[in-house]
Design brief:
The chain is an alpha/beta fold and 305 residues long. It contains 14 helices and 9 strands.
Length: 305
């Protein structure tokens, strides 16, 4: 067991990412106070050594560094800005780290409101999925004050292996959205390429073997094809999560006047999967509706048509 640390850390949001991140903080020796809308996750982590913070305000009052890991901008706004939210008790010396994927406008707004109370706000979205959260190997892209980043670094090191201070407030969020744009487009391309290849008579496992070492290779290909051929759509990154992110990206592009032809087409693929009730399944499930339209399934040992 790690030696106790003298920094008290709060975590609000104990979902697929927040729960394993909390476990890593506990393993690193931090005193961790937690809060979640549903009780079972709190009870599980209290049994592992965490403290039940009851509500966001109490978590903030107890902790020097507070991490939020929430599903969407509305949840982030509520936790920070409601009457008993984090901003209501923010004080000098505190650092808030929002690891959620939101829009940069919200990150900058929260930075302004937190800074007005003498505290620091860092947008600190993460990449690496649940596996990275469990292993403590996340990539963390941080926007905001450099001194606050330095103070938060020991905490971040318990969560990730690649820490990047990428610029002022909102910069981390912008880069995370760029990453999610690539994820969505690549996943849609992988699904279409695999369906096309199998429909034309290719063996999907041979396709992966060749494409993974070709210019068309990608992490989405390497991650996605094994799940697709085994029909394992119970993965940890659901269709609706990427769909939400693509919506944020589309809105940002519209505000900035940036054409997003490919991104918007990828969003349509995820919309189609959502409408067909695959929203809670892994993002690789977008292949199902493409397969249905093509009249073929990409499965292990697929025979030539």
């Amino acid at each position: 067991m790690a030696e106790p640390r003298n920094v008290r850390v709060g975590v609000i949001g104990l979902g697929k990412m927040g729960k394993p991140m909390t476990r890593n903080l506990l393993a690193a020796g931090f005193e961790v106070t937690v809060h979640n809308r549903s009780g079972p996750a709190v009870a599980e982590l209290v049994a592992a050594g965490a403290i039940d913070g009851k509500n966001p305000k109490t978590v903030g009052e107890r902790c020097e560094i507070v991490i939020t890991s929430l599903p969407d901008p509305a949840a982030v706004r509520a936790v920070y800005l409601e009457r008993d939210g984090l901003v209501s008790q923010a004080h000098a010396g505190q650092v808030f780290l929002d690891t959620s994927t939101v829009d940069p406008g919200l990150s900058r707004e929260l930075n302004e409101k937190v800074s007005a109370k003498g505290a620091a706000f860092l947008d600190a979205p993460v990449s690496g999925g649940v596996a990275g959260a469990e292993a403590g190997t996340l990539t963390i892209m941080v926007g905001g004050d450099a001194d606050a980043f330095a103070r938060a670094t020991p905490v971040l090191e318990a969560l990730g292996q690649r820490l990047h201070h990428v610029g002022p407030s909102g910069a981390g969020t912008v880069i995370k959205l760029a990453n999610q744009l690539l994820v969505g487009i690549n996943m849609a391309a992988v699904a279409e390429a695999m369906v096309l290849g199998v429909k034309a008579g290719a063996d999907p496992e041979k396709m992966l073997e060749v494409l993974s070492t070709s210019f068309g290779g990608s992490r989405m290909l390497d991650r996605g094809v094994p799940l697709i051929v085994d029909r394992n759509f119970a993965g940890a990154t659901p269709v609706d999560l990427i769909r939400k992110d693509l919506g944020l990206i589309s809105d940002l592009a519209g505000e900035l006047g940036v054409p997003l032809a490919t991104g918007n087409q990828a969003r349509e693929v995820f919309d189609q999967a959502h409408d067909a009730d695959h929203g809670g399944e892994d993002m690789t499930a977008i292949v199902i509706e493409i397969e249905r339209a093509a009249g073929v399934e990409v499965i292990r040992g697929t025979p030539s048509p």
